[in-house]
């Protein structure tokens, strides 16, 4: 049996198998990429983040449960106006909040320091924004830090 007769008999089957394998591989790769993008969006979707909703409305996340996507997200679209939207209605995060400590991270840090965080026990730190202002002021005073 020579190559030409083998290809004439089995060429179409081989081609179909190769196409099926390629389709399966590319579909799986696309699904993995989408999953990574969804996980990244879920990490960025925290209270205080500015988001764009499916309808073209911009707002700020007030409450969002990344673990239970059936729960509605609470989005503030104007000062004092909070709407509830399905978590999948959030198209993308426009301005992600950086430097925010999640509750789990805070509990872990608190446990590792045996319940004592410097400044909190003495009432020095009143909020995250005050702490950030103090840090930026110290940075301006001492640019080498």
TrEMBL record:
Which stretches are transmembrane?
A: 6-25
Cite the InterPro entries for this sequence: Preprotein_translocase_YajC (IPR003849)
Which parts of the sequence are annotated with region: Disordered?
A: 123-145
The yes or no answer to whether the keyword Signal is present is no
Biased region (Basic and acidic residues) positions are: 130-145
Q: Which UniProt keywords apply?
A: Membrane, Transmembrane, Transmembrane helix
A UniProt-annotated Pfam family: YajC
Identify this protein by name: Preprotein translocase subunit YajC
Q: What organism does this protein naturally occur in?
A: Microbacterium halimionae
């Amino acid at each position: 049996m020579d190559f030409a007769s083998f290809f004439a008999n089995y060429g179409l089957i081989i081609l179909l198998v190769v196409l099926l394998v390629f389709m399966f591989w590319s579909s799986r790769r696309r699904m993995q990429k989408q999953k990574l993008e969804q996980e990244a969006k879920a990490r960025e979707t925290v209270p205080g983040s500015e988001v764009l909703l499916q309808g073209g409305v911009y707002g700020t996340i007030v409450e969002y449960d990344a673990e239970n996507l059936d729960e509605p997200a609470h989005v503030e679209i104007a000062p004092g106006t909070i709407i509830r939207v399905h978590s999948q209605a959030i198209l993308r995060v426009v301005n992600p909040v950086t430097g925010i400590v999640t509750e789990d991270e805070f509990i872990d840090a608190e446990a590792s320091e045996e319940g004592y965080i410097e400044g909190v026990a003495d009432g020095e730190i009143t909020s995250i924004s005050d702490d950030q202002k103090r840090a930026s002021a110290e940075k301006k005073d001492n640019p080498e830090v």
